[in-house]
């Protein structure tokens, strides 16, 4: 069986090379030519490829690893977001396919369907099957290459555009060059952008750079966030860990074996914590446990690190060199994380210092035998929560999730291409002294209202035909709210649409009209503003998204007359009911004051203004008013 990273070790030995930043002015003809080359078959990369291919473009989708799907097929199966109303576009399409899969295989009323939670939770092998189906629907336009690692990047003579990328085919140890008119970097690490020479950041900014409360050193102790005395930035990177897929089903359980370099003393502090009764369980969906077991279908759990816990599986401080690391160094860090988590589980299940109650519970779980079958049942990807972050046309920061002036909504972005609904959330940067000391540095959590994400975060400053959909332009704090598969996928879809418009109109990524991107996204059910009562199957959807993105709803509710309360939890998980007061109430009859306000926001003139004002006398609902107004705007453009 191919162990995690084995193919990387083998290829490194073959190459005998370090990962160097090799950029050339292009004089080499390509072996294959494409309209679009997408590097990284993460879901973000696949969304970019699919949405561009759907528009008729020929796309190369190139992946360094053997498998597609990134983390969503590599261990992360309990997907992070807060409210379902944030999900749309390509990601929602995936969810529908997941739910239909479980309905067809197990029945509409089955436990598996209930456990998939409307398609948001899928076993890794199920996600893999669905992703291949999604790509296969565009097999005439998308060519998939796995086990291809970037070797060099060719630029045009002016060094303002990429012309080709040379990859090392790790199966054959040969070089192959793909030419392209447009390129998208959808890797977790931002490898293509870095190779090309895009400016990027690794680590944390100072508190002063962007005026962010959570920047610089920050501590968590006894349920309270303690702001550090210094606000200086540093090279610290948010902690990584593997997301094991484990099960308590004896028929599908594989017990963890003692790792080759197991060091018992590393884990002994955990035994003392358990003896003192500071933690109630080994596995739990909540946070009072050693390992967070987030349940997915068929009695499996996605195992994750627990923030702010006295026991951690994230190796804080052991990953700083990963983002810019050579192939060899990255492999070393990956293996260190693998050995740590396997050693940790083995310790919990076997060590005599673990109280019987906890050891018995731990031994009731094992690795899922039917997952990662070509990799020893171990996840194929390390959870890279944060690596490089480009410095693009816009830098997303903590300030972008703060409330807009006199509004219950966050900062408005008329050029938004996606939305997010998650906390500013960091799993820590550095362990203070012993690995399991109760204070960790860098942990924070703050839940804002849903927020918009502008086009500039995926647009590098340096090139006119490159977009970056995962290692996006953000501060460390801002990125901590963006670093989620649904968000990255939405940004990938937007990147694919933007690439299409650039190819179609022969324009630079810097010159694309945000509204053109938004209109195509809305037609595909993607969202650029959070509205909880108008979904993508509604006849009002496109009009509501269009006008909401222009700020129509930022003052729909009077800030002084509403009482904001935290939405209730769903299913006992982190998922929540819709965020309050982010509705439009489309069936409600529009009053003249609101109609006048909306019309004035558009600054219409002449016949357009007259037609808009005539709508007021028709006693329309809010939704119908917006649809009619949308028709007036679009009619004038065509």
Keywords:
638 residues, globular, alpha/beta, six-stranded mixed β-sheet
Task: Report on this structure.
- It is a single chain.
- This protein has 638 residues and is α/β, with parallel strands linked by helices.
- The chain contains 18 helices and 22 strands.
- It has helices at 6-15, 43-53, 71-74, 89-106, 111-115, 124-136, 191-196, 207-210, 264-275, 327-350, 356-363, 476-482, 485-505, 514-523, 541-549, 592-602, 606-616, 622-637, and strands spanning 23-25, 32-39, 59-62, 142-145, 148-155, 162-169, 174-185, 200-201, 218-221, 224-227, 245-247, 253-254, 281-284, 289-296, 300-304, 366-368, 389-390, 416-420, 424-431, 440-446, 451-454, 466-468.
- Strands 1, 2, 3, 4, 5, 6, 7 and 22 form an eight-stranded mixed beta sheet that branches. Strands 12-16-11-15-14-13 form a six-stranded mixed beta sheet, covered by helices on one side.
- α14 (514-523) packs antiparallel against α15, α15 packs across α18 (622-637) and α16 (592-602) runs antiparallel to α17 (606-616).
- The longest helix has 24 residues, at 327-350.
- It is globular, with a radius of gyration of 25 Å.
- The N and C termini lie far apart (59 Å).
- Residues 1-22 have low confidence and may be disordered.
């Amino acid at each position: 069986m191919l162990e995690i990273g084995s193919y990387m070790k083998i290829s490194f030995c073959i190459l005998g090379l370090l990962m160097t930043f090799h950029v050339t002015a292009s004089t080499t003809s390509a072996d294959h030519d494409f309209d679009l080359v997408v590097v990284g078959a993460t879901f973000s990369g696949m969304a970019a490829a699919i949405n561009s291919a759907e528009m008729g473009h020929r796309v190369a989708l190139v992946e360094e690893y053997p498998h597609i799907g990134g983390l969503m097929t590599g261990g992360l199966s309990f997907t992070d977001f807060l409210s379902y109303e944030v999900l749309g576009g390509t990601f929602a399409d995936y969810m529908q396919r997941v739910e239909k899969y479980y309905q067809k295989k197990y029945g509409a009323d089955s436990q598996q369907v209930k456990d998939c939670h409307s398609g948001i939770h899928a076993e890794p092998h199920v996600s893999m099957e669905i992703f291949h189906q999604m790509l296969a629907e565009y097999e005439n336009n998308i060519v998939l290459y796995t086990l291809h690692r970037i070797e060099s990047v060719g630029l045009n003579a002016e060094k303002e555009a990429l012309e080709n990328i040379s990859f090392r085919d790790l199966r054959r140890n040969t070089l192959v060059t793909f030419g392209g008119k447009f390129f998208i970097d959808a890797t977790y690490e931002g490898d293509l952008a870095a190779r090309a020479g895009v400016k990027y950041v690794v680590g944390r900014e100072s508190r002063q750079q962007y005026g962010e409360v959570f920047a610089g050193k920050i501590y968590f102790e006894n349920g309270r966030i303690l702001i550090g005395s210094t606000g200086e930035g540093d090279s610290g990177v948010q902690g990584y860990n593997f997301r094991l897929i484990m099960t308590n089903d004896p028929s599908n359980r594989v017990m963890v074996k003692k790792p080759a370099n197991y060091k018992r003393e590393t884990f002994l502090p955990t035994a003392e914590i358990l003896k003192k009764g500071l933690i109630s369980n080994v596995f739990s969906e909540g946070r009072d446990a050693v390992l967070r077991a987030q349940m997915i279908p068929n009695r499996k759990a996605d195992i994750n690190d627990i923030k702010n816990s006295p026991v951690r599986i994230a190796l804080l401080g052991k990953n700083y060199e990963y983002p810019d690391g050579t192939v060899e160094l990255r492999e070393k860090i990956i293996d260190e994380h693998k050995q740590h988590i396997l050693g940790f589980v083995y310790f919990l299940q076997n060590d005599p210092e673990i109280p019987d109650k906890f050891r018995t519970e731990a031994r009731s779980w094992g690795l899922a035998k039917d997952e990662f079958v070509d990799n020893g049942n171990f996840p194929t990807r390390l959870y890279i929560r944060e690596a490089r972050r480009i410095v693009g046309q816009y830098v997303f920061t903590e300030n972008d999730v703060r409330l807009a002036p006199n509004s219950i909504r966050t900062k408005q972005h008329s050029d938004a291409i996606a939305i997010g609904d998650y906390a500013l959330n960091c799993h820590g940067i550095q362990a203070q002294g012993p690995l399991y000391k109760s204070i960790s540095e860098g942990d924070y959590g703050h839940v804002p209202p849903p927020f918009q994400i502008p086009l500039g975060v995926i647009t590098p400053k340096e090139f006119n035909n490159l977009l970056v959909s995962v290692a996006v332009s953000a501060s460390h704090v801002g990125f901590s709210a963006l670093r989620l598969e649904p968000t990255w996928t939405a940004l990938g879809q937007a990147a694919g649409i933007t690439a299409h418009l650039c190819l179609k109109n022969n324009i630079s990524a810097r010159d694309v009209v945000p509204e053109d991107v938004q209109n195509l996204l809305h037609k595909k059910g993607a969202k650029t503003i959070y509205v909880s009562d108008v979904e993508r199957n509604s006849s009002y959807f496109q009009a509501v998204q269009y006008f909401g993105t222009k700020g129509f709803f930022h003052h729909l509710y009077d800030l002084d007359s509403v009482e904001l309360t935290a939405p209730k939890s769903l299913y006992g998980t982190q998922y929540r009911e819709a965020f309050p007061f982010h509705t439009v109430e489309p069936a409600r009859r529009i009053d003249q004051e609101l109609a006048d306000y909306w019309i004035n926001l558009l600054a219409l003139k002449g016949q357009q203004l007259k037609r808009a004002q005539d709508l007021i006398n028709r006693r329309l609902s809010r939704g119908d008013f917006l649809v009619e107004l949308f028709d007036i705007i679009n009619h004038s453009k065509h």
